Structure formats: C-alpha cells, structure tokens
Amino acid sequence: MAKGFGGRGMPGMGGGMNMNMLKQAQKMQQDMMRLQQELQEKEYQAAAGGGVVSATVNGKHELKALVIDPEAVDPDDVEMLQDMIVAAVNEAMRAADSDAASTMQSITGGLGLPF
C-alpha cells in the first residue's frame, strides 16, 4: 500500500470531507431533477403582431395554446398571419429555454453542468 494512503478518501484529507462532498453532489442532483420537473410543467406565453397572436408553450416545448385575434385573419395576407404565429411560438420557446438556463445556473452555481 502506498505510504500515506490509508484507503479512506484522498491522502491528507479526512474521509468526512469526501462524504460531505458526495452528499452535496447528491443533493444538487436531487434539486436539479426536481427543478427539471417543475420547469417542464411551467407554461410560457409570448405574443406577436402587437398582441393579435399569442402562443403558450410548456417547458417540454409543447405548444399548449394558440390565440388568434379574428382581426388578424386576412384572407389576402395569410403569410403575415403565419409569420406572426411562428414568431409568437419561437419567442415563447426562447422564454422557456432562458428560464431553464437561469434556474439551473442558480442550482449549479455556474459549474457548466448539462441539464
């Protein structure tokens, strides 16, 4: 056996320090799993075209609702309506992603861990 290595933890460190680090890592993992579940259930809403189109998505990137003001429906300009729908949905998705990133950053302390 190598000198100075008693088989418990790292040389020069008490075994208690390694156990404490392991417990902290396990707690962080549990917190991250709980937050991921919460984020998936949250809903995010965004609007486009001055509010005539609004989209609601959840944290799993599923479109949950789409509201279109009847005034936005112009049979001669369907393309504009389509663009507003895409813009509203994409903005809601960005809001979900941004919230997830900032929430996970608060748990990991900027360790750069994937979620």
TrEMBL record:
Domain of life of the native organism: Bacteria
UniProt subcellular location: Cytoplasm, Nucleoid
Example of a GO cellular component annotation carried by this entry: cytosol
Coiled coil: 18-45
Alphabetical UniProt keywords: Coiled coil, Cytoplasm, DNA-binding
Pfam families named among the record's database cross-references: YbaB_DNA_bd
Function: Binds to DNA and alters its conformation. May be involved in regulation of gene expression, nucleoid organization and DNA protection.
Subunit structure comment from the entry: Homodimer.
Family: Belongs to the YbaB/EbfC family.
NCBIfam families, sorted: DNA_YbaB_EbfC
UniProt protein name: Nucleoid-associated protein H8S11_08155
Species of origin: Flintibacter hominis
